[in-house]
Write a structure and sequence with these properties.
By secondary structure, this protein is α+β, with helices and mostly antiparallel strands. It has two domains: 58 residues, no CATH class; 208 residues, 2-Layer Sandwich (Nucleotidyltransferase, domain 5). Helices cover 38% and strands 13% of the residues. The strands form three sheets. Strands 7-6-5-8 form a four-stranded mixed β-sheet, with helices on both faces. β3 and β4 form a beta hairpin. α2 crosses α9. The radius of gyration is 33 Å and the shape is globular. The termini are far apart.
């Protein structure tokens, strides 16, 4: 049988694996940078200042997508994702710092003109949808220490709410997934009537940068109604005092379990209206301190 050279064997193997053949590691040489040029002495490579290219590994085959484009290595995704996250974090940090510096001279009187708003979610069974039972050890499957599950009407309720120094604003139940159209209707039918009736002249509306809040549909509506907006920074729940109001409300309604959403919604409305006025005043008056905390933290998250 005819003997095959090393190069021929590499080429045959490469054709079977459908990958490009590796560089010829046995015939290609690199000239040492300080060695004299010997174009006719390649056969005496080492003696003439040439070193074999043994350190070059075979090329790694690329992955291709459905359209034939070479896909980057998996590690490239991780590096790019890390760079993007770092860039986003610095962007949000700067935006928060700029906001705090812009409004650091606002007093509590200025913040009393702001209508704060947000969405939240309330579960039928406490804060996480689970119901806990106290029982002796070894009685997990005892019927006496088991509770029936809710087959109909389970889940949670999503709400939109607002408040200002003048008191608690409307609380609206959200049915399904809220989009820009539904959000605009909430602003038109609930937020605006409350603000025009209860807030002083020159009032300002606050909402975060959720995509539906920042949609063109909502922006056009607010502009048509000449509503002044607080230029709110993204990723800033610690700056919004309504987050603490949601916590207070969840503590008040989370002490019991509810048979269905109707019962939970009725209790939410009642407890929302009974939130103490002194708590509302405390939250409004905390805004100058929140801005100062963001400045001290150089835009990073604060204790609020």
């Amino acid at each position: 049988m005819r003997s095959m050279s090393v190069e021929q064997r590499w080429q045959d193997l490469a054709s079977l694996l459908t990958i490009p053949p590796p560089p010829d590691q046995y015939q290609h040489y690199h000239q040492h940078p300080h060695a004299p040029h010997h174009p006719h002495n390649i056969s005496h490579g080492a003696a003439a200042g040439y070193t074999p290219n043994y350190h070059v590994p075979p090329p790694v085959p690329e992955k291709h997508d459905a359209y034939g484009a070479a896909a980057p290595l998996e590690g490239a995704y991780k590096v790019e994702s890390a760079h993007l996250q770092q860039h986003d974090g610095l962007y949000y940090q700067k935006a928060r710092l700029d906001f705090a510096k812009k409004y650091q001279r606002w007093t509590a009187s200025d913040w009393r003109k702001v209508l704060f708003s947000d969405e939240s979610k309330f579960h039928l069974f406490g804060s996480d949808g689970r119901k806990y039972v106290r029982r002796p050890a070894g009685t997990r499957y005892n019927v006496r220490y088991q509770t029936p599950t809710v087959k109909h009407g389970g889940g949670n309720i999503k709400v939109w709410g607002a408040f200002s120094a003048n008191g608690i604003g409307p609380l609206v139940e959200i049915h399904g997934n809220m989009d820009a159209v539904m959000y605009k209707e909430i602003l038109q039918n609930h937020m605006l009537p409350f603000a025009k009736k209860n807030l002083p002249r020159g009032w300002v509306f606050q909402h975060d940068n959720d995509p539906k809040h920042a949609s063109r549909h909502v922006k056009n509506f607010l502009q048509s109604q000449k509503v002044r907006l607080l230029d709110w920074p993204s990723q800033s729940p610690d700056l919004n005092p309504i987050e603490h109001l949601w916590q207070n409300l969840k503590l008040r309604v989370g002490t019991k379990n509810y048979a269905n959403k109707t019962e939970l919604w009725s209790h939410l409305q009642r407890e929302w209206k009974e939130l103490p006025e002194d708590r509302i005043s405390q939250l409004i008056e905390s805004m100058p301190r929140r801005c100062a905390a963001v400045i001290a933290a150089k835009g990073m998250t604060t204790k609020y």
